[in-house]
Amino acid sequence: MKSENAVNPPDQINQNSSTFRTDILRGLNQKNKKLPSKYFYDKIGDRLFQTIMKMPEYYLTNCELDIFKNKTSEIAEVIMHNHTPFDLIELGAGDATKSVYLLQHLLEKNAAFSYLPIDISENILSELVQQMETKLPQLSVVPMEGDYFEMLEQATKQSENRKVVLFLGGNIGNMEADEALLFCKTLHSKLHPGDMVLMGFDLKKNPHTILAAYNDSEGITAAFNVNLLNRINRELHADFKIENFQHYPVYDPVSGACRSYLVSICKQKVTIDDEVIDFEANELIDMEISQKFTIEQIHHLMNRAGFQSLKNISDSKKWFIDAIWMA
Ligand code: AVI
């Protein structure tokens, strides 16, 4: 997921072309059309997300960076539990923009740990290894390329050290509630008692602030959404007319769900390979959820997945939380 977490799809699955085709067609043949946002992250999508993270409206990245820069010792205190050796595993490490502050601090504190970045992109991992050799030459880095949970299992088999798993960026918010619960339960099932998770959650806040983050004035978020239609055109020989779809983000401050839709501005037909998909005028494609949480919702999710809360660490504005849980 790019700069940190940017370069990795929130939900890592095998994105081979037949799975892609099946998922896209299944989503567009539903009564309420829906496309999986994990497919936003092709090369162009990665670049667009990098740009989003630098936009003034997109506060999430800076909030979590604030935590990693300024609350590093609070994080380290919890995860260096009893000073026993541990493996620090990062799901979707990207370029470790945020975690590098923690890594540096842990080295300064002489913590006994190795860093195991997991990413589906080999390129990203080899760049990360090179970068760490220069920035933090004393760091022991064990890159792991592949699916999050498969790699986590492998890491557990490779070493008996306790595990501390980082899942940053608020990526959990890109899962529907049932998917987020399943993800956290699966994560719990791969860990042993005493292992820890540090997960980033974007909190509910002024609805205007949230909506602006997904409706930027430059139209980058719109391009990020529409890029999936371009990707389908390219990879599945489809004929979406991009100008016939409009980006429409909405935020429901009651449920905390921020959703992006694409609106078909006219009645039209789209061909994907040999399948024809009909769109009515004003029909929607549900493109992405970016769920915003309350502390109570985070606790509820954690409890249902089988974890205990150790600490919630927030940024100075209290807009974002990194929650530390114990399995
Ligand atoms: C990756 N993820 C946490 C981003 C988010 O905020 O939901 C993806 C994104 N979508 C639109 N802007 C950013």
CATH architectural group of the largest domain? 3-Layer(aba) Sandwich
Q: What is the count of structural domains?
A: 2
Provide the CATH topology of the largest domain: Rossmann fold
User: What is the string of SSEs from the N terminus onward?
Assistant: HHHHEHEHEHEHEHHEEEEEHEE
**Ends distance:** 26 Å
Major sheet size, sense and barrel closure: 7 strands, mixed
Spatial strand order of the main sheet: 3-2-1-4-5-12-11
Could you say which overall geometry the principal axes of the C-alpha atoms support? globular
Note the total helix count: 11
Please indicate the percent range of residues in DSSP E strands (runs of 2 or more).
Answer: 15-25%
Query: Taking all residues together, what is the mean pLDDT?
Result: 94
User: Spans with pLDDT under 50 lasting ≥5 residues?
Assistant: 1-14
What level of helicity do the residues show?
25-40%
Structural class: alpha/beta
How many β-strands, per DSSP? 12
CATH class of the largest domain: Alpha Beta
Please, what is the CATH homologous superfamily of the largest domain? Vaccinia Virus protein VP39
Radius of gyration: 20 Å
List all distinct small molecules, including ions and cofactors, that are bound in this structure.
Answer: N,N-dimethyl-L-histidine
List the helices and strands and how they pair.
Elements: H1 17-28, H2 43-54, H3 60-70, H4 72-79, E1 86-91, H5 99-108, E2 113-119, H6 122-135, E3 144-145, H7 148-158, E4 162-167, H8 177-190, E5 196-202, H9 207-213, H10 220-236, E6 245-252, E7 257-264, E8 268-272, E9 275-279, E10 284-291, H11 295-305, E11 308-314, E12 320-326
Parallel strand pairs: 1-2, 1-4, 2-3, 4-5
Antiparallel strand pairs: 5-12, 6-7, 7-10, 8-9, 11-12
Bound molecules: N,N-dimethyl-L-histidine (AVI).
